[in-house]
């Protein structure tokens, strides 16, 4: 099974500042045949189901604000929130869908 | 609009079974894989398995092999997840989540979740 490891486990950032969350997979999730990374990012707020933010490592889902961006390839990925807003307080999960599904342990993002 | 509506909360005794439903609407039911993901209180997301509503083929996480059964009813666009031999550690919110038209796709639409509580 592919293991997904996020860092840090929690993060406190001031409003308007940049937030960065990292995700590492135990094996590459880059499909050589189409050069696509099978890596997604989700946001989960208390009492709500997860919401897809990013797929293919860097493609924003429709309706997701452009302050959210994803980068990386192979085994190392990053979710960046360029200017933190109050509504971005949530837990963020990375997920590989290269082989079935595996989620990272989550990163709790708070306001400093 | 695309929507997944799950059945209501359940309370079960250890050793019992639970069957959670997920009714889809707003899209062609048989065109998208459906996953089940659970979340224990205060914990992260755990993938349980996936079903292809077109044909009913399933793949289950090894952890749940032998205890979980996923089925579909195409006449009502409903997917079911049954978990047997329940134990206290199965207390969690269970989500259905629509994958892609192909096997390898993220989950763009989620149900609201069903809380299953296992307690004697």
Describe the model.
The complex is a heterodimer of chains A (112) and B (120). Helix content of chain A is 0%, strand content 52%. Chain A contains no helices and 13 strands. Chain A has strands at 4-7, 10-13, 19-25, 30-31, 36-37, 39-44, 51-55, 59-60, 68-73, 76-81, 90-96, 102-103, 107-111. In chain A, the strands form 3 sheets. In chain A, strands 2, 6, 7, 8, 11, 12 and 13 form a 7-stranded mixed β-sheet that branches. In chain A, strands 1-3-10-9 form a 4-stranded antiparallel β-sheet, with no helix packed on it. In chain A, strands 4-5 form a two-stranded antiparallel ribbon. Chain A is globular. The mean pLDDT of chain A is 97. Chain B is mainly beta. The radius of gyration of chain B is 13 Å and the shape is globular.
What is the first-to-last residue Cα distance of chain A?
Answer: 36 Å
Largest sheet of chain A: 7 strands, mixed
Percentage of residues in DSSP E strands of chain B: over 45%
Q: Quick one: which chains have the greatest interface?
A: A-B, 23 and 22 residues
Question: Any idea what the shape of chain A is?
Answer: globular
Order of helices and strands of chain A: EEEEEEEEEEEEE
Q: Strand content of the residues of chain A, in percent? A: over 45%
Radius of gyration of chain A, CA atoms, in whole angstroms: 13 Å
Note the overall shape of chain B: globular
What can be said about the biggest beta sheet of chain B? 7 strands, mixed
> How far from one another are the termini of chain B?
40 Å
The gyration radius over C-alpha positions of chain B equals: 13 Å
> Which consecutive residue ranges of chain A, at least 5 long each, have pLDDT under 50?
none
